[in-house]
Amino acid sequence: xxxxxxxxxxxxxSSLVSWARRCVQETGINAEYMGFINTQRMLxxxxxxxxxxxxxxxxxxxxxxxxxxxxKKDIRPGVWTRMKEIFGYMKENDANYKEDLEMALWADxxxxxxxxxxxxxxxxxxxxxxxxxxxxxxxxxxxKHCIVNTVEQSKSLLARTSGDVEFHxxxxxxxxxxxxxxxxxxxxEITRCTKEHPNGDAGGxxxxxxxxxxxxxxxxxxxxxxxxxxxxxPLNAEGVQIVEQWAxxxxxxxxxxxxxQELKVTNLWEMAEAVKEVAKKIRLYLSLIxx
Length: 291
Fold this sequence. Notes:
By secondary structure, the chain is mostly helical. It has helices at residues 9-22, 31-34, 39-53, 61-73, 77-87, 106-112, 147-159, 166-182, 216-222, 237-253, 268-286; strands spanning 127-129, 191-193.
């Protein structure tokens, strides 16, 4: 990320990694409770990506697929069998889903295809009043339809063992995999309220910068990802190999044993608050430099 290019690099990076490690367990629910997926292992996969991509990369297609690839390597065979069964209840005709790794991208793909009804599920507008009193801000944080609540609701739905809900499980499993990745991008969990933007800055989408990617959010999500090998969609054999190799390298460099204490964190809303604090550090730093 851009904010590592200064004398504050070490402190800022340390803060982000410390936050990321706190994110890992989400709720502490195990595979037996959920009936199909080991939440702790999935969040461990996300933690690995948060640590690695806090150094140089951003959240776009390839990182989301790497997250999913790590999760697949770290779950039991029976869990993966159940996941494939659930995926099958909502068949995809689009050639972009030839490889199951691309299921991690489905939630963004439907946005590109103008399906806007669930856009709010990708973020949580926690208010940051920067330079003005909070009462002057017009931000309305919607906790019911935010990313945190959607992950919680997805988890509950996927744990159900009764009712005709397999189609809905299929959709929400796709969201679950994708949104857990989005939660580790701090700008998905804050909106900065200023005199210029009393309604908030939409997670940095209104934070303009002098760059080809001319908003902070766009820069974070896309520009740094150009340092990754190009992976074309629909995925071919070479693309799958690239994603799988990245997943292996990350797990080798950052073994699960490095995060014993962080795995004890269980509250998703507390995690979101920590994300907000990281995002504030990013904005404050960027106000001091030219991009």
